[in-house]
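Consider this record:
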Amino acid sequence: FTGMLRFLLRSMATLPKEKVQVPATATVEAIRQLSPTVKTLDLKIQRGLLPFSFKAGQWLDTFIPEMETVGGFSIANSPESFAASGLLEVAVKHSPHPAALWVHDQCKVGSKVGLNVGGDVFLELARGAAPASFVFIAGGIGISPLRSMIQHVQANSPQSDVKILYSAKTEEELIYEDELSSNLQENWVLSTFVTSKGPRITGDVIAQTLKAMTTQPDVFVCGPPEFSDFVLDQAQKLGFPESKVHYEKWW
């Protein structure tokens, strides 16, 4: 297919504020509790040094007033969604990280943050791109950048062969399951796994998924390091080309 395939997994980084130029500011337009542990923010760009843009799969370095630690949150919607709504979406899981705590405990509608887009690995397809094959494998909050990519494929190459493997500890933590299910295209399949009840993304599941693809797919993985390691190990055991598995481990 045409276009570049790049992918990034990003959790949260700590960067010295004084060394980073903040090219855009945004206001929190809405806050939603998607699960007991995940909140989403809708961010509206207020000003920027350049017209604001990003690629599917990139992240936001998020600069919070009076906080030295910088939050790194994956963008959960696609460039096409942003163009239509004017809003960026980030999904933030509760954790001890100062930026995540701010999102869950202090952030309010109207709060302002600085933003800097990061990530040199992403998915980019031209409008009307020829059908291709993609497998997206997500563990927990790792669905966020994959959702951006899935929306991007839907907007630009909906005839592609797409399989989505999505696992979380509880049903409540499958935060985008309903949306993904309702937007499946003709050649798309979504399989979900609730690990607290037993089902998991096993080596057999990965093997069956890869073998069911019409052509050799590009595989995108997002989740905790051990999750990504497991998927890569299984792909290697199957003789699947390492160059076709796209991931980076969380920091």
Observations:
- Confidence is low (pLDDT under 50) at residues 1-20.
- The two ends are 31 Å apart (CA to CA).
